[in-house]
């Protein structure tokens, strides 16, 4: 996080609150948007194009990360290959609502790794919160509509774990501008994902030629709305307010994620999804509210 963060809390202004909700809506709606793109484009190719566009848009404004090249390469592998690839592969099969809730396990995973690597004390409350979060996902996994989709759910949970690993890598990286971080991750992740696509996927050129407007819209949304607009606004907010004032707003992401699946994809809202979602988001809420620095604000999100 930037060193120019505010040192004292100030009341949230109505306009800034509107910006916060807008950013959470952008990130939450991305589950439905991404799933729409994945109906036409394979996940590795989809993500390669996403990271390429991010690099093109942000690199002109990024600084040279002197002495941080190798760690950035490692972060790009964790986020590009291990997080986003598994997340989007799982999202092909899972409904957006389930993925939006399951990926929230990244916060309990991040808290566990923070305790291991940074001696961040967990305490019984956060330990209980982790159990609640995992219990919520277990309830959702018991839904009849998830029959045969357990591998896809496992991919999303693995992606959540890998996000927490990237979180540790970013914290160890030291101070770095958020746009610089995203720009160079884009530069390094693009060739890795392009190579993975060539090795694991087929018919890329034909797929790109046949793709509709909505497939390309999904890529642009990922790069422009999620990263440039979403993170641009987020970094601006971090300069104006304490992290513990705005981090709890991230609890709105799964809410918007579930709503996006229901409204735009026609997914159903079941009792298991509601109960599991409440348990998971409730557990995540306890972790965030008790220790808002458990996650790095610069870490990329779906």
Radius of gyration: 18 Å
- What's the SSE pattern? HHHHHHHHHHHHH
Average pLDDT: 89
Into which percent range does the helicity of residues fall? over 70%
Low-confidence stretches: none
Class derived from helix and strand content? mainly alpha
Tell the overall outline.
Answer: globular
Task: Describe what this molecule looks like in 3D.
The protein is mostly helical. The protein has one domain. Helices cover 75% and strands 0% of the residues. Helix 2 (43-58) runs antiparallel to helix 8 and helix 6 (123-141) runs antiparallel to helix 13 (271-290). It is globular, with a radius of gyration of 18 Å. 46% of the residues are buried.
Q: How is this structure best summarized?
A:
The protein is mainly α.
Furnish the topology, listing elements before pairings.
Blueprint: H1 14-38, H2 43-58, H3 69-93, H4 96-102, H5 106-118, H6 123-141, H7 150-173, H8 178-200, H9 204-210, H10 213-240, H11 243-246, H12 252-265, H13 271-290
Helix pairs in contact: 1-4, 1-10, 1-12, 2-3, 2-8, 2-10, 3-7, 3-8, 4-12, 4-13, 5-7, 6-13
Give keywords:
mainly alpha; globular; 302 residues
